[in-house]
């Protein structure tokens, strides 16, 4: 008679039997991983948000709330708005103090800043997201790109305030006139909210808009872009031109320049598209 061959007990079943003998639960025993059971999940990067001119970090509040709810760590950085080189150096110092991968998101002039700040940080900054933003090439300025295509009415809405520093240095800051702020910057934002934004707007140094970029990180880091078709600050044609040139994955929305406030759900969706590619 042929005796059937007994199956050799697995290491896992042996460990479970020993655990039962000792009166231990299975969870008290460190069991070996089962081959093929492990899965590769995307890493949750830190999302760093950089605001632009005539706004502040609070302009990201609706986006921050949604990203945090989705489980992301978010840093809404303060932008000095003094010039691409200065502002990029400051943003880079913020990124340097973050552990793990980062997704940089820039609104408006903030796009110029993240393009310069991320250069050389390809190992850490995994994606760039441009929200109604500039994607300048080396040697281009924000003002030059604005004027490259028709459609911006910003020049008629701003006023300049001159200042003198204690060391004798002189300069000029640019604001949007409060009475023109909503129509120019935030036409699809409720009037009371737009009034608060106008009162709390951060001025940008006039020289910052003319300072030429020295780096273009979108050449080496994957990029995403949200184009706003009702934008009176950066012409939609300019946004499309820059996005196409960079090879950015582009989404279009009918919104004003203040899209981070008026359409935070759309902005969040684009940011998450970029974040989900980080592994």
TrEMBL record:
Task: Domain (AB hydrolase-1): give its ranges.
Answer: 47-268
Recite the UniProt keywords alphabetically: Signal
User: Which SUPFAM superfamilies has this protein been placed in?
Assistant: alpha/beta-Hydrolases (SSF53474)
Q: According to the UniProt entry, where is the signal peptide?
A: 1-30
- Would you say which domain of life the source belongs to? Bacteria
Q: Name one GO molecular function term.
A: catalytic activity
Span-the-membrane segments of this chain are none
What name has this protein been given in UniProt? Pimeloyl-ACP methyl ester carboxylesterase
Lineage here is: Bacteria, Bacillati, Actinomycetota, Actinomycetes, Kitasatosporales
């Amino acid at each position: 008679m042929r005796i059937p061959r007994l199956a050799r007990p697995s290491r896992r079943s042996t460990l479970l039997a020993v655990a039962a003998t000792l009166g231990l639960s299975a969870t008290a025993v460190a069991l070996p991983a089962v081959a093929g059971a492990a899965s590769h999940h995307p890493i949750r990067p830190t999302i760093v948000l950089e605001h632009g001119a005539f706004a502040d970090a609070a302009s990201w509040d609706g986006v921050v709330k949604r990203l945090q709810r989705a489980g992301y760590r978010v840093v809404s950085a303060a932008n000095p708005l003094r010039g691409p080189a200065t502002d990029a150096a400051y943003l880079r110092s913020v990124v340097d103090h973050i552990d793990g991968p980062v997704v940089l998101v820039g609104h408006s002039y903030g796009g110029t800043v993240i393009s310069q700040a991320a250069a050389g940080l390809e190992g850490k900054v995994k994606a760039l997201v441009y929200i109604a933003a500039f994607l300048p090439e080396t040697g281009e300025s924000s003002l030059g790109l604005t004027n490259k295509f028709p459609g911006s009415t910003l020049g008629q809405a701003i006023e300049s305030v001159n200042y003198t520093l204690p060391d004798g240095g002189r300069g000029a800051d640019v604001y949007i006139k409060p009475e023109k702020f909503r129509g120019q910057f935030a036409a699809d934002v409720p009037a009371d909210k737009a009034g608060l934004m106008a009162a709390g707007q951060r001025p940008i140094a006039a020289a910052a808009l003319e300072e030429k970029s020295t780096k273009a990180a979108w050449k080496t880091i994957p990029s995403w872009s949200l184009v706003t078709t009702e934008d009176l600050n950066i012409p939609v044609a300019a946004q499309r031109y820059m996005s196409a040139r960079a090879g950015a994955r582009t989404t279009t929305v009918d919104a004003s320049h203040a899209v981070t406030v008026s359409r935070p759900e759309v902005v969040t969706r684009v940011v998450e598209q970029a974040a989900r590619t980080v592994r």
